[in-house]
Design brief:
The chain folds into 2 domains: 1-52, no CATH class; 65-271, MetI-like (MetI-like fold). 70% of the residues lie in helices and 0% in strands. It contains 14 helices and no strands. It has helices at residues 4-32, 37-40, 55-63, 66-97, 101-113, 122-131, 138-142, 149-160, 164-172, 177-188, 190-206, 209-214, 223-229, 238-264. The longest helix is centred in the N-terminal third of the chain and has 32 residues, at 66-97. Residues 268-274 have low confidence and may be disordered.
């Protein structure tokens, strides 16, 4: 017992150190967004603003087409997330519950794609999207992101843990394959759906490289491209840039606060037995 106490103290201290290591820069970033431009680089540097102001937020919202960027990003993130969940769930179910040699080979190919950096396939993706006539459109941003190896792998591993007897019982009761998938398997996989929804929404909301490659019209720009456009060639309005960056984070924080309880309290084996 005496030996356990120092270990708990050190473990707790290490966790608080990590919290401070990650939290202090984020806190400084948030507080700096309320500083006027002249105070950002005044010496000595201060964490708390001496004269708090929201001018950076208002200028970011009014000086740029921020509402349009917000709307475009929301369309991309929501549509890509919904399609990603459907495609990943169906693909993961097929890979988990149907046995065939080419399905196993297909699973290995899908897992192999997780080892490829996204930048490696930018060029072929661009050619395909351009030939499909989706260049410079939000559909072109969404199309390559609807199937992810991570989502497929998450669903496959979950469906592997579901006893086959459950499926056999449903089939004996007259349930078809599609009905079994929609009415039994999808509700069981709700924790995976919530987890993938949060991850996919975050990926698409923060995506910068692909929208930058595929979009050319400022009216179609997403939020990350819009924020990057605030940085001028010779001058950077740091107050506006900080305000725009904080505004772009708000939806992600809200999404996480709403759905994190479903993920943290998820019982992946609820209602099942081996």
């Amino acid at each position: 017992m005496d030996n356990l106490l120092p270990k708990k103290v050190w473990a707790t201290a290490a966790l608080w150190f990590m919290v401070a290591l990650y939290g202090i820069p984020v806190l400084w970033f948030l507080l700096s967004s309320f500083k006027p431009a002249g105070e950002l680089f005044s010496y000595p540097l201060t964490i708390f603003p001496k004269q708090p102001t929201i001018s950076g937020f208002t200028q970011a919202w009014t000086s740029f087409d921020f509402s349009r960027y917000f709307g475009n990003t929301l369309i991309v993130a929501v549509s890509a997330t919904l399609i990603t969940i459907v495609t990943s769930a169906t693909c993961g179910y097929a890979l988990a519950k149907y046995t065939n040699w080419w399905l196993r080979a297909f699973t290995i190919c899908i897992l192999a794609t997780t080892m490829l950096p996204g930048e490696v396939i930018l060029s072929p993706l661009f050619l395909i999207v351009r030939d499909l006539g989706l260049y410079n459109s939000l559909a072109g941003v969404v199309a390559p992101s609807v199937i992810t190896a991570t989502g497929t792998f998450l669903f496959r591993q979950f469906f592997l843990s579901v006893p086959r007897d459950l499926l056999d019982a449903a089939r004996i009761d007259g349930s078809g394959e599609l009905s079994t998938f929609i009415r039994i398997m999808l509700p069981l996989s709700r924790p995976i759906i919530m987890t993938l929804a949060i991850m996919s929404f975050q990926w698409r909301w923060n995506d910068y490289i692909w929208p930058l490659v595929i979009l050319n019209d400022p009216k179609e720009f997403t939020l990350q491209i819009g924020v990057a456009s605030i940085v001028g060639a010779e001058n950077v309005n740091w107050s506006v840039l900080l305000g725009a960056s904080v505004l772009s984070m708000i939806p992600l924080v809200v999404i996480y606060l709403i759905f994190q309880k479903y993920v943290m309290n998820a019982d992946l084996s609820a209602g099942l037995k081996d």
